[in-house]
Amino acid sequence: MIKSKHLNIHRYLEISGDNMMKQINLKIPDTLFSKAKKHVDKYGYKNIQELALESMREKIFNSKEEYDETFTKRELELIEKFVEKVHEEGDFIDADELFRILDEK
Length: 105
Fold this sequence. Notes:
The protein is 55% helix and 0% strand.
């Protein structure tokens, strides 16, 4: 198994089922970029784009009822148990490996 930094799994659990995507260009001050980069590195985001997308979701969809949940309650419980077990054993994996494992089930 691959050892990695924190794996921010929570952000993958609240992704809309709508695969239609639009692209935007975002200009931000250097100081904000620097702090965003540190946040990305500290909390296991792939890049600043993921952080920005999650931040917008949190701001716009302020309650769980507004998300298009893609996992059942049981699936979320299993994911939580999996994450707890990984943390207990210190056996961290990267996101690609996690999704490969989940796809096999």
